Amino acid sequence: MKIKLLIICIFSIFSLKTTAQITPAGQVLEGLSMPSATLGYAVNYAIYLPPDYKESTRFYPVVYLLHGYTDNETGWIQFGEVNMAADRAIASREIPSMIIVMPDAKATWYMNNADGSQKFEDMFVQEFIPYIDKTYRTRAKKEFRGVSGLSMGGFGSLLYSLKHPDLFAACAAFSAAVWTEEEVKAMPTTSRDGLFEKLFGLTKEKTLLTPHYRANSIIDLAGSLPKEQIEKVRFYIDCGDDDFLYKGNAALHVLLRDRQIKHEFRVRDGGHTWVYWRTGIVDGLKFIGESFHR
């Protein structure tokens, strides 16, 4: 009996090692950049190429994965371990083989700022997406392009999907930086070293609720854009029950429900942490990947 148990244990260990060894690994490229005439500086980015990219001549769907405030293009690799998550999910056929692109947005909030001195949104739409489509073997159509992100990047993914629905099939926003109007009214303009004032400008009453804010507010856009325009994109919204951004995400969900706009809304146990995002990213990629299938 002891010998049989020993054999079973050895076989189990060997099987686990074999499974780990045969999981194909994709390629991560960092330290890349694209010169931008719109911004006047080079935009850094990292990219994940699926395991079969090198050996094939096929073209792949692409997901733009956006980082949060204080991070850069390396965040989703270093802390989110998205490359390893994608390797496992592709191997198990939870998600299709896909290219994942991670640009560095600095602290731009992925938008054009109030005075027009920094137009990151214009750069992303007019320069970055075409550059990626030209440089890599992407399937350069809306049907095969998705966007996702966390916190500031969650805001960016929602902003791009709402304002440019003809560019993306699906959006997966994690812990998105979405605020209610009451939260914005109470927000000190000196917070984050005056960053929000630079992004949105100020009203005469010294609030951030300017026309530029309204034009880029996720809540305002979700409430004012035509229903048929919003529904051109499939939406997945995920925010932890302990996240300080819960109120804006919940308000967005309620607003979309009231307008009978189809979307997926998830509340899991957790806060504004990499543990939360690491454990959720595959579900987000899976949701986006479903849009790539026929």
Characterization of this structure:
By secondary structure, the chain is an alpha/beta fold. The protein has a single domain, classed as Alpha/Beta hydrolase fold, catalytic domain (Rossmann fold), CATH 3.40.50. The chain contains 13 helices and eight strands. The chain has an eight-stranded mixed β-sheet, sandwiched between helices. 40% of the residues are buried.
Low-confidence region ranges: none
Number of strands: 8
* Beta-strand fraction estimate: 15-25%
SSE order, one letter for each helix or strand: HEEEHHEHEHEHHHHHEHEHH
Spatial order of strands in the largest sheet: 1-2-4-3-5-6-7-8
Distance between the termini: 52 Å
Helix content: 40-55%
Mean pLDDT: 93
